[in-house]
C-alpha cells in the first residue's frame, strides 16, 4: 500500500474563515439574489466557471464572490489541497476502514496500488475479453445458444452507476445488446424484468462488493430458479458472471474462479461504476464506449487534482453545497437533469451524497456541530415542472436547486426547447412576481377590482429561489463521465471539510443486521414494542 499520509484533521469552526462565513451567512439569509444580480454587473461572469465540457453558473445562488473566496480560504485552512493529494496518492482517506479510496485509479486518474497492479491488469484483460466474446456471439449458455442479453443483479452502487450510464447512453445510441437491471428484494422486480427474455440467451451479471447483500443474493437465487425452470437444467453456471471483492463468498455460492471478476477493496460501492461493476455498460455499448466514459471521468480527475481552487469546478460544487447545507442551513437540494436519459441521476446522486456524507462523527470522534449532507432528491425535467415545482414557486420550504442541462452538438429543435424550459424555470424561480405585477396581470384579464385584490396574494411569487445551472458542451459518454466524476469529487470536498469519512456506511449496516435478525426469525427482544407488534401482525398474516 501507499506510504502517503492524510494531513491532520482541522475542525472547520476553529478556522478564521469560518467566523467570516458565519457573518456572511447571516446577511445572505435575508439578502435578495435578484437585487445582487441586477446591481453587480460582473456577478454572472465571476460566479461561473468551466471545466472540460461542463459550464457551471452559480450566480443565482445565495452567495457572491467574496463568500466563494472565503469558502476557498476555509478549504485551504483545513488543508483541502493536501487532502486531494492524499486521495489521489492512495492514502487512507477512508480512515474508519483504513483504506484508500481509489476509484479514480480504475479510470487512469490515479495509480493502482503496486501490490494490486497485476490483479487489476488481469481483471481488465478478462473484462475486455468477456466483452469481445459476448459481442462475437461466443459466450454461450447451457443450451449452446449465444448469450445476447444482459441482466444486472445488484443494488445501491452495484446497480445505480451502471443503470444510470446504460440509460443515459441508450438515449444517445441504440445499445448493441439489451441490458436490464434488477435491484429490489421485491420478487416482482425480478419477475417483471425477465418477462419476455429468452432464458437460453440471458447472461446475469451479479454485482456485489460484499457478495452478502440480501437483495442481490435473493435475486441470484431467483435467476437460478428461473433458468432451471425455463431450460430444464440446473447446469446454468455459464449464464452467470460475478463481480465482487469477496471471491471466496462467490465461490462458496457456486461461482467458479473463471466466472468471478475482481472488484478492488479500495473502490467504494457507490464509486464502483468505473470498475468491473461497469461491465453491463461495456456489454451493452461496447468496450470503447466504456473507455470513453472512463476517459471523461479521468479528465475531471486531472482537473480536480491540478486546477487552482479558484478555477476548480468540483471544489466550487463542493464548497457551494457546504455553504448551503452548513452555513445557510438549507435542508434540501433538488437536482433536476433536463435529459430523459438522466432520469436516474437524482437517485445516483442521492446515494453518492447521502450515503457518503449523511454522517455526524469526525475523524477525532467529535460530532460535527452544524448540519452536514442535505436531502438530495429530484426528477428529470420537464416532468418535475408538472409535479413539484409549484412548491419551489410558492412553498415555504428552503430548497436549493441544481439544473443539469446537457447540450448535445448539434442541438436539434426538441433539445433546444427542453433546455429553454430549464433556463426559464431557473429564471422564473429567481424573478418571481410581485403583488403589483400580479395585480396588473389580473387587471389585464379584465377582472373587477374586488376580485383582483382577493386573488393577487395567491398570484404573488416570492422569487429568489437559489439555483445553479450546469450546462454541458456536447453530450456523449465522455461528458457523462465528466459530470459524474465532478459530483464524486464535490462529495469528497464536503466530506473533507466536515471531517467525516465519505467512504464508509455504518448506519446502513445496522439496518441490514436487524433485518437479518427479523428474516431469520431470531429474537425480537432487541426491537422496540412497536416493531415487535408489527412483526407479530406480519407473522399472523397469511
Ligand atoms: O455491492 P454490495 O456489497 O452488494 O452492496 C450494495 C450496497 O449496499 C451498501 O453497502 C449499503 O447500502 C452500499 O454502500 C452498496 O452500494
UniProtKB/TrEMBL annotation:
Its EC number is 5.3.1.9. The keyword Cytoplasm applies. Pfam families: PGI. Its main location: cytoplasm. It catalyses: alpha-D-glucose 6-phosphate = beta-D-fructose 6-phosphate. It is found in: Cytoplasm. Keywords: Cytoplasm, Gluconeogenesis, Glycolysis, Isomerase. Pathway: Carbohydrate biosynthesis; gluconeogenesis; Carbohydrate degradation; glycolysis; D-glyceraldehyde 3-phosphate and glycerone phosphate from D-glucose: step 2/4. It comes from the Bacteria. It is an enzyme of class 5 (isomerase). GO terms for molecular function: glucose-6-phosphate isomerase activity. The active site is at residues 355, 386, 512. Catalyzes the reversible isomerization of glucose-6-phosphate to fructose-6-phosphate. Belongs to the GPI family. This is Glucose-6-phosphate isomerase. It comes from Tepidiphilus baoligensis. The gene is pgi.
Amino acid at each position: 500500500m501507499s506510504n502517503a499520509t492524510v494531513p491532520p484533521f482541522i475542525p472547520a469552526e476553529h478556522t478564521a474563515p469560518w467566523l467570516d462565513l458565519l457573518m456572511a451567512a447571516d446577511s445572505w439569509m435575508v439578502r435578495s439574489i435578484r437585487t445582487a444580480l441586477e446591481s453587480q454587473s460582473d456577478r454572472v461572469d465571476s460566479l461561473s466557471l468551466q471545466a472540460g465540457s461542463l459550464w457551471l453558473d452559480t450566480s443565482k445562488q445565495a452567495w457572491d464572490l467574496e463568500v466563494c473566496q472565503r469558502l476557498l480560504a476555509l478549504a485551504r485552512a483545513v488543508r483541502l489541497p493536501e487532502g486531494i493529494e492524499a486521495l489521489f496518492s492512495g492514502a487512507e482517506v477512508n480512515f474508519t476502514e483504513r483504506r484508500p479510496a481509489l476509484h479514480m485509479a480504475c479510470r487512469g486518474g490515479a495509480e493502482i496500488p503496486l501490490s494490486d497492479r497485476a490483479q487489476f491488469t488481469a481483471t481488465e484483460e478478462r473484462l475486455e475479453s468477456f466483452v469481445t466474446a459476448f459481442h462475437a456471439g461466443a459466450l454461450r449458455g447451457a443450451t449452446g445458444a449465444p448469450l445476447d442479453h444482459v441482466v444486472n443483479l445488484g443494488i445501491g452502487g452495484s446497480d445505480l452507476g451502471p443503470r444510470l450510464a446504460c440509460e443515459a447512453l441508450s438515449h444517445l445510441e441504440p445499445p448493441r445488446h439489451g441490458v436490464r437491471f434488477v435491484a429490489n428484494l421485491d420478487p416482482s422486480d425480478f419477475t417483471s424484468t425477465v418477462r419476455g427474455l429468452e432464458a437460453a440467451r440471458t447472461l446475469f451479471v451479479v454485482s456485489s462488493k460484499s457478495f452478502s447483500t440480501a437483495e442481490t443474493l435473493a435475486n441470484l437465487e431467483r435467476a437460478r430458479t428461473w433458468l432451471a425452470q425455463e431450460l430444464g437444467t440446473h447446469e446454468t453456471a455459464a449464464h452467470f458472471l460475478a463481480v465482487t471483492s469477496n471471491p471466496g463468498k462467490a465461490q462458496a455460492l457456486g461461482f467458479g474462479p473463471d466466472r468471478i471478476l475482481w472488484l478492488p477493496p479500495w473502490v467504494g460501492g457507490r464509486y464502483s461504476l468505473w470498475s468491473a461493476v461497469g461491465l453491463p455498460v461495456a456489454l451493452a455499448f461496447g468496450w470503447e464506449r466504456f473507455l470513453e466514459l472512463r476517459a471523461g471521468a479521468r479528465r475531471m480527475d486531472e482537473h480536480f487534482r491540478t486546477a487552482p481552487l479558484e478555477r476548480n469546478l468540483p471544489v466550487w460544487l463542493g464548497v457551494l453545497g457546504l455553504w448551503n447545507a452548513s452555513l445557510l442551513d438549507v435542508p434540501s437540494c433538488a437536482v433536476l437533469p433536463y435529459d430523459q436519459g438522466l432520469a436516474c441521476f437524482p437517485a445516483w446522486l442521492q446515494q453518492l451524497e447521502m450515503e457518503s456524507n449523511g454522517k455526524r462523527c469526525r475523524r477525532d470522534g467529535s460530532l460535527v456541530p452544524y448540519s452536514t449532507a442535505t436531502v438530495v432528491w429530484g426528477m428529470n425535467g420537464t416532468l418535475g415542472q408538472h409535479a413539484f415545482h409549484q412548491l419551489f414557486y410558492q412553498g415555504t420550504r428552503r430548497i436549493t436547486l441544481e439544473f443539469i442541462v446537457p447540450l448535445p452538438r448539434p442541438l436539434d429543435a426538441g433539445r433546444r426547447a427542453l433546455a429553454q424550459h430549464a433556463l426559464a424555470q431557473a429564471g422564473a424561480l429567481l424573478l418571481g412576481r410581485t403583488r403589483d405585477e400580479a395585480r396588473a396581470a389580473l387587471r389585464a384579464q379584465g377582472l373587477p377590482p374586488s376580485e383582483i385584490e382577493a386573488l393577487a396574494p395567491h398570484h404573488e411569487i416570492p422569487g429568489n429561489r437559489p439555483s445553479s445551472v450546469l450546462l454541458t458542451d456536447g453530450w456523449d459518454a465522455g461528458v457523462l463521465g465528466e459530470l459524474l466524476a465532478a459530483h464524486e469529487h464535490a462529495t469528497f470536498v464536503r466530506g473533507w471539510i466536515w471531517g467525516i469519512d465519505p467512504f464508509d456506511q455504518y448506519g446502513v449496516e445496522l439496518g441490514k443486521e436487524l433485518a437479518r435478525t427479523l428474516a431469520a426469525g431470531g429474537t425480537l427482544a432487541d426491537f422496540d414494542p412497536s416493531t415487535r407488534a408489527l412483526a407479530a401482525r406480519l407473522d399472523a398474516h397469511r
